[in-house]
Structure formats: structure tokens, C-alpha cells
User: Fold this.
Amino acid sequence: DGNFTWPREAAAKATTARRIAHEDVVFRLHLRGFDGNGEPLKTSIMKKTVDAMDSTGRWYQAIIVNVDNSRKTANPDDGQDEDETSSHDGNSDVRRENTHVRVHFIAENHEEWIDVKSDRLAVKGRMTSSSMRHIDSGHDSDEETKPSESKSRIAGGINKKKDTSEISDPNSNAVCLFPSYGATGLINLGNTCYANSGWQCMAYLPLLRAYLLSGQFKINGDINKDNPLGTGGKILEEFSELLHLMWSGKYGARAPQKFRSILAKSRPQYSGADQQDAQELLNDMFDMLHEDGNRIRKKPYVEALEDKFVEKTELARVGEEAWRRFLRRNRSVISDLSMGQVYNRVTCPHCNHSSKNFDPFTMLSLPFPTVAEVIFRCTIVRRATALNCPNTLYSIWKHPSQKYTPKTSTANISPPSQELITEEYLIPMSRLADIGDLKMKLQNLSGIPSKDLRVCKREDIESNASDNKHNFTRMYTKVSALADKEGPCIKLLQQSTLDDVSSATIARIVAFESTLVVRPIEIPNNDRHSMASRAEVIDDASTTADEMSTDDSSSETVIPVYQNKAEEKLVQEMLKVYGDEKECVVFDTNPTPLAKVISRSLWPKSPKDFTLGLRVDAIDHRNHWFPGSVIEIVVDGDENNPDEEAEERVDMEPTTKVKVHFDNFSTKWDEIYSIESFNESRVCPLYSHATPRHKPTEFVVHHRALDRKTKTYYLFGQSYYIQCHNEWSTARAGAHILAQASRFLEIPPFRNSENGKKSEAVDRKIAEKERNEARKVISRVIEALIKSDRKYMESAIACGKEAQENEEHAPFDITVMSNILSKKLSEVLPLLPFDVRVTTASSPLGTNEEESSYPFSLVRTIGNYMNARHALVLNWRERPEKDNNQKPLAKKQFLYSPPFLASHRQSRALLYANQKDPSGNATVKRHPSSSHGGLSIGVCLTEFCKEQQLDATGCWRCPVCKREREGKQSMTLWNLPDLLTFHLKRFNASSRWREKISTRVDFPLTGLNMREWCDKESPLYQESDDEGFIYDLVGVVNHYGGMTGGHYVAMCKATACGPDGDEEVAYSFNGEGVSELEVADEESAAPSSGWRNLGRTAKEKDSSSNASAKAVAESAEPLWLQFDDDLVEPLPPRNIVSETAYVLFYRRRRMRPANIAKYSPLG
Assistant:
């Protein structure tokens, strides 16, 4: 693949590694109190500067202020351990060894004891950077020092002030591989790769490099030390010194400590060891260099262009005047070489006024196409109503002779419509949107409130049925709920499509409309205040039994049925409408107020008054209040009192107690209470202490069938969510369950298929007759359940009121009503096309013993019977088909019918524009792509210049309307600089989510023509030929990693330049060859065919690096260098373009003659 290692570089790395390892060994011996030979140190290690890690895990420079040498040890080079040496106290080899050192952290100004063997101690400068050192330190590694002088400072302690800031430079002996081409790496000072990569690319910008290396800013007096916006000229001077080191040809790598220290003082955000953005650093560098070299000493006040002048004057004249006014305050090498103009136009949608501005820029931030988004193919399942299930729900309360007549033809209905059961929408969403944003768009399209939508991830699973004669039984749609804050949307897709933003990606989801529509109850105005002034309910964990006990526990408390007149009025209003003809068809009444009144009405005064299904608030063994139901009346509970003597219980009457099952708990937490618990207020009426749940009971319903061959169950069809009011009886909830299940028995009149496949007219007629009979049965069952539940409510409240007025009134007996209901259901339930079963949510196939038939009961509430760990299963029966003579046939069928799926009209065009694949997902390319599958940089430039709609966040105010408007903004390039810098906006962020876009952007190494994106009215477009728009690449900053962390690497096109800034400005960038360089040794091998042969001959291994430079000059390909901090390697041009490119540096091929004459030493 062309990768190789230079022999001299490999040897230098090996030597460096050995030297670092030796330094670590000596350092550990010094901490213990020994020198490199194992002898005791003659000098103390007190006041020695080291690198130390504090308790937060950050490295700082610290000074040793104390040592602990309380134990003795043998010679460190001996192999004895501590136990062996402790028996030789008289031996002269036994020495005092330091075990801990106390260090003083300079930056944090605190002290801490650290074990000498701990990894929290390191050689000074190994883990810290120059920004954390003493500011007044005299030595810096940017300065050129002789190796012998450095060694003398370390060994002899000469110049103590400089010694305190000395740092071990592991690459001080590295050899520059390509003299006259820079090729000097920058050592990482602790997460400084972002700065190293940016500085390397800036060091290869022509004219700017010559200006800094030649010192023209000093000769011309360009340093502006009085500019409050600059750094007093420090950044300009120190960056020039850093470039001198990088272009001296003497060093393979240097540590930019001094320059980073100055940078940290000017921009504190770069002082720590945290990772920063290379693009932000480059913007700050250009800004600081511009202000430090600004030749305008006193910036005059410059007024903005007046609107009248802009409207009456030609656009070219306006742009020229805007640039002239900008130059009145800004004149520097950066403004001459790197600054251009953007023509920004914003149009008001109301008055059509256009606001025109000419904005200067140093770096263009190119966005990725906004159409690269996530498209959700969402199926909405509406609740069953009399409009979309008329054959079942419309006829519940109607006379059998009445038939439902649709207002419009079903074939002409299109979403959104309440007459449809399932609707399909295609919704484009931002990659970083969440489910809450998606629900708001679904609300706007379907008309269903977002709070009533349950969005779920959809997964189609192939059924395991052995005989898939019906198409609908071949697939099972599994759903898993998504929270509103679930996101971002891109994470809901498959992993293979996450990073591709060049195409829109389709994801399939399903949204269920809430099956509950709460009935509004009108409360008289004069009773609302008293209703709201009731005592608030007590939290379920805030009240204990001790707090609720009274002084006279034996006293009988009379509990009123109604707490006040307002509650009585509310219950009366609810009883008028509860269970009427709109119940379960239009509205679903919440019976919580009725349940509280019934609990007080049926409150027992003695054991004989205990009633099954009584709703109570009971205190558990932990003294916490929870709502529950009486599920069993236990007679003779003597086994609960084993401590009593047998003879004392002989003549006692049987004890009657009740077993209470708590809501949302398993049966193992059931408690048994006696009448004393009721009298002692350990059991109280419903919701007198506990807090009612605000959310309804919710569970999943699955479709299931039996495989006759394997005798096993399998799931099929669309599973769905259903909600029930917590205080509904299981009978009333059963009516709701059957009503929602009727959606899978409806067939639109225009359907010509049966059970998902084509069928003959006779077969269809027979099947529809069977299905019609099943719908009638469901209607009868729903009607019976609702009437029985209504009668139970009315009887319970009336009985309680009569019992308070007449103490001799017979207790309420629900047995009669339950028996009547059971008798009715026993006749019609076998006629249903399915059985309703209760199972665990984790095993809907019924593989456990917990599965049971659903109880259509009046004495058990659905909130008490089921919880989130349960699920419902509709176990569909196969019915034999009959011929015209009503004789059964051998062939069987299901009455299940998948609801017709109607597509939204506006979504069809978007759906057909995408190419489907077998998995159901689809992608479509929206923009021209390269042969590598990525985007062209021209697409990003077009996106930058595209007209866009501003949002209504107050970002633009129309000067004519004097109001904030959602204007239309468009930008074009007006004036281009000689050095053009692009920033690819790979980091995308929303209010809650972030991501890095890893789409590859293909950019040319040579010949980038910018004419297409320049404004046609600009003087540059009208006066220049194509050569004035041609740019060639000189550098790239690459980012590897993601949002939480990464690494920066620079790639630069090596061009010859002397230490004093002598460079060939007219250097050829067309890839046909480079100018031959003068080298000291003219004896060389035959010209190589390319960069791959560099350094491979024996002569190159032994000769100086000038041979490498000569080979580069003779190469047919241009030399590209990769700077990975201190590692510098040649790079083939084919590896420059990648998906990691972040910042691009281009130069104009034909630079302005005025800039060449002004800033080039050759000029």
C-alpha cells in the first residue's frame, strides 16, 4: 500500500524509547532516595519539580516539600524483599528508603501525600504543558539550545531558575527528513493535536509564510501593540519564531511550549489540557494575526451603508463601497491574503423588501445538504369508532333493522379521515429530531393530538406457521414503545445507514391513537368552588397507620357517602350519561368519582357487610398506603393466630376476614385484614389516603393462532396498544377490548381480496356472511357488558344511600347480577371468532402456566387485575367454510381481516420517489455524488448559496415593516481571497442531541473552479477569466473520532521555502512536476519514478537527508506530508481525500500581483 518507515527515523524512535525508559527508572530511584547506581543520594530531593496527578485525575506540576522515610530497606539493586532485610538491622547495606512524598500543586495551591511507586508521579514535563508552568520561566524548548548545555543544566543544577522549567524533549534529536520543505513535527503537549494540525497547515500557506519568516512585519513596522482587539503583537512575533524553528531544517520535531504559553494568556480556553476544535483555533489565529498586524493604528468610526444608497446605486458600486469602508478599519496581511466578501440578501415575505449586505469572511463554513434526512414511513392506527367500524359499533344501540350508510364512498376516502382505521404518512425529519418532534408533525397531518399518540418502533417478524395459506399470517408485526424524548431519529435506523447523510433514509414506525376519549362532565358553576376546595389526597408514602389512628379505636365511625354537595351533584350527572348509547362508541367515561362513592357506600360495619370487589385504601406491612380490591372473603381465619391456646378457641365463632390485592402488585403481596383493621382505620375508603394513578392501564394485544400440524401457537398480524381506565370493571374493560378488536373484522366495500389474497365472489360472500355474524355477536356482548356495568354502578350507590338511611337495610349482594351476566356470556362468548386470553408480556405464545381466560367480571377492576407485566392475546379460531347449502367444507379460514391501509396523497409522491428494497427500507440520492459514493464539494458550496427560510426566532427584523419576519436568505460569493479556507460543518447539533457527519466530501487537489458560486454582478465575475477562479489545495486538517473525543492530523503539500522566507510563488500545482532544488550533494542515484522509492537505497540510509530532498525534487508526483503531531511521513496524493477531512486550505493558482510584490521576498 506504499507505507514504509525511514531507517533513520526508526532508529531515532528506538533510541528515544530507550532513553525515556531509562529516565523513568532513574526517576523512581530518585524518589526512593537513591541515585542511578543504587547509592544514597548526596542531595535531597526536596524542592524538586515533578508532574503529579491530583484527586480529579488531572496532571499538574508540583514541588516535593516533604518525604517519608520511616522504614528501612536493603540496596535497591539487591533481590531481597522487606521481610528479609528487616532481620539485618546491623548490616551496612540497609538504607533508609522514601515511601511517600508530599507534593505541593503549584496551580491548585494545595498539598498531598503520594506513594513513590504510584503512577500519579512522573518526570517533570512528561504529562504537563507549558501553560501550566511558571510564567516567569526563562527557558523554553522553542529556543535553540545545545545538547551539551542542556545536559550540564540537568546534571550540575546550573541556573536554578531555568532548571525549574526544564522539560525533557524526547524528539530533540529527531532528524528533519525533508530540508527546505519544513517537515518539522510538533510535539503534543497534552491534547494539543488540534493546535498542531492547524499550525502546520498555516505554515504552508504561501506569502503568509514568507511574510512571517522574512520578518517583514518588523521591517515595515506592522506590529500593532496598541490594538485593544489584539495581543500586543505577541502572537504575531511568537508565531514567527515558531515558523523559524519549523523551517530551519534542523529539527525533526519541536515542542511549541513558548508559543502555546503566549496563546493561553491571550485565549484562556486553550490553556488547559481539554480537547478543542481546530476550526475555532484557526479562526482565532487568523483574527489575532490580523489584529496584531493591523496597520490601522486608530480605527475610525465607519457608518453602515444607508438603505437609500443601496437601493439607488448599482450593486457593483455598493460592494466596492462596502469593502472600502471595511478597509478603513482593517489593513493587514490577513485582510490582503485571506479575507473575502459574501453578498448576503434577505427578502421580507410581506413587503418584498430586500436587505443587502456585504460581509467579510476569513473562512467559509460549508453545510451538508439539508435534504439528507430521515424519512419516517409511519402507519397510524386509529381507535375503533362508529365511523370506521360501523358494522360492529354503529349497531350496538340501534335497532337491528337500521343499517349504517356511509356519507361518502370508501374508495374515495384519503387520509386524514376518521372513517379509516389505518393511514400511512411519509414524514421527513431532521437527523437529530426526537420522537416528540415527530409526534407534533403527525398531529399536524392526521389531526390526532400528539398527547394521544403512542409511537412505536416496528419490527416485522416472519411467522413460524407451517401452513401459511393466508398472506396475513406470514408476518407478525412486533411493536416496542418509544418515549417522547427518544432520539435522535437517526439512531432508530440500522447501524449501516447512520453516517450517510448524502441520501435520505426511510424508517418504518407505527403510531397508535389512544383508545380512550374521556367524556366531558358538565359541573354546575355554583358547585365548582366547593368541589375544588376539598381536602387534597395524601401521598401514598407520606401517611402511616400511627398517624391515622384515633384515640378511641373501638368507636364506630360513620362514613358519609358524599363528602359534599358538589360531589353528589357530580355523581348524579355522571350516572345520567354513564353507559348510555355513546358509551364505548363515542366516549369512554372515567368512573373514578363513582368508584370512590361506591367504596364509601359499601363500607362494612361488620363482617357480614364484606363485599367482593370492594375498593379500599389499605396499609401494608411497611406502613404505606396503596389502593386495592377485596378479592376473597376468608371465613375462619384461626390459622393466622397460632399463638392462642386451643381451648380458648373452642367456643369462638368463625372469624371472617378479607384478602386485599394491591394495584400493580403481584399476588405474593396480598394482605388479609379483619373488621378491626377497618375500625382502626388501617383500611379506609378508596383514595382517602392513596393517590389515584393519572395514567390509564395500558397493555399490548397480540393476535395468535394454533398451528394444526405442530400443535403450537404462533403470532401474526398487527399487535397494538390499548388503554383502559383504572377503575373500570373487567366487564366494562372487556367491552372496550372487544370494540377495539372489531377493527380486524372490517372490510371496505371496494376490497377484492379476502384475508390478503384474491378470492372468488362466492367464497367472499360466504366469508363476509360469517364475519357479519361475528360482528353481531361482538355487538351483543358489548351491549350486555355495558348494561350490566351501568346497573352495578347504580345499584351499589343506591344501596349504600339506603343503608345509611335505614340501618336494617339488607347488605348489597352482587351475586345475582354476576350470575345473570355469566349466563348471558356463556351463550355468546363461544360464538366469538377468538378467545380473549391473559398472559405475561414476555411470553405471548403461552409457554408459561400464568395464562388464563380473561374474566368478564363486575367485582374486579382492570387496574387491579392487570399491570404492565401482562398482555392480552386474541386467540383466533379457525371456522369451517360452508357452501351454498350451508354444509361445512374441509377447508378452514380465519375471520381476521387486515385493515385497509390508505396512503396520504402528499406522501405517495415521496414514497414513489424512493426505490424500495426487500427489507422495506429505501434510500434515494438527492445530489450528484462522486464515484466513491460521497458528496462533491460543489454540492456543499451550492447548499451554502441556496436560498433558505429563516425561522421565527427574532433573528431578522425587516427595516420597512419594523417587525420580526421569517425572511428568505440567500448568499453568494462576491470577492475571493488568494488564500481560501473551507470548513466542513461535520458537527451537527440540536437542543438535545449531537452527531458527527462522516460522509465523504470529494474535493479536487488541483483546479477547483469557483466561478459557479460567485455572483454574476460582481466585478470579479465580469472582469476575470477562468484562471482567476482556479484554486489548488495546499493543506487539510483531518478529524478522526466522534463527538466525545478524537484526534487531529494535518496533511500539507510540501513546497520549498528557505528559513528567511524565500519561496517560489509561481510554484506549479498541476502535478506535472516541481522545480529542481539545489542540494549540497549532487551525486545521487538515477531519478526515481515516484515518492515510494525515497530512502530505500543503501546510500540514502547512510547519507544526509539532502538526498531525500533531491529525490523529492526529481519525483514525478508532488510531495504530500502527513503531520501526526511529532510524526512526519510522506503521503501518496490518492490518500488525501477521505471522510475525515475537516478544514481545507486552497490558494489561488494565479495570485494577485499586488500581494506577490508586497509580501514575497522575491518581489
Notes: The longest strand covers residues 712-724. The chain has a mean pLDDT of 79. The longest helix spans residues 761-805.
